[in-house]
């Protein structure tokens, strides 16, 4: 693909200024080290003002009709690299903040302590997973749920089943400090 000549827009001042300094560069659309490709007559100042404006306008149209992807590709690549670096930086900061936070205690659904020698209302409520002041129907429902999970016929422990039954009796008020069979 043949590229059009690079554009450097120029402004011609008075003849005396032009002779001393040459054409003044207004902006450069390519890199700094580009050769000026304006017709020789325009460089010497022999074109009339209309022709000078036309020359710059024609070059401007020719430059802007170049492939936009050629000019945009390095910019897009640079933006992608910058965005990736920024995201990585914030990700590392977030990970360090996550690791530096104090550990939260995990909420446990079940009481992990051992059994007391004599059953109390508090221990009975902990075993069944209800409050000490729970209604009778809720206590029976909780007993049924816990007993299904720990029944000896389904592979549960006899000791746990006796403690679950003792907890139900304690909360329903059927027995006072009866103690475990085991």
UniProtKB/TrEMBL annotation:
Transmembrane segments: none annotated. GO terms for molecular function: ATPase activator activity. It comes from the Eukaryota. Its main location: mitochondrion. It is found in: Mitochondrion inner membrane. Keywords: Membrane, Mitochondrion, Mitochondrion inner membrane, Transmembrane, Transmembrane helix. This is J domain-containing protein.
């Amino acid at each position: 693909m043949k590229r059009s000549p690079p554009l450097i827009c120029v402004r011609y001042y008075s003849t005396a200024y032009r002779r001393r300094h040459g054409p003044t560069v207004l902006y450069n659309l390519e890199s700094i080290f580009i050769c000026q490709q304006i017709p020789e007559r325009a460089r010497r100042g022999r074109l009339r003002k209309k022709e000078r404006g036309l020359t710059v306008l024609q070059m401007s149209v020719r430059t802007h009709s170049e492939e936009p992807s050629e000019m945009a590709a390095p910019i897009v690549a640079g933006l992608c690299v910058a965005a990736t670096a920024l995201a990585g930086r914030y990700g590392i900061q977030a990970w360090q903040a996550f690791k530096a936070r104090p550990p939260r205690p995990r909420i446990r659904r079940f009481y992990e302590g051992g059994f007391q020698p004599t059953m109390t209302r508090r221990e009975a409520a902990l075993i069944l997973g209800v409050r000490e002041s729970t209604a009778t129907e809720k206590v029976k429902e909780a007993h049924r749920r816990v007993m299904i999970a720990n029944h000896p016929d389904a592979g549960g422990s006899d000791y746990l089943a006796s403690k679950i039954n003792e907890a139900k009796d304690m909360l329903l008020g059927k027995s006072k400090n009866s103690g475990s069979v085991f």
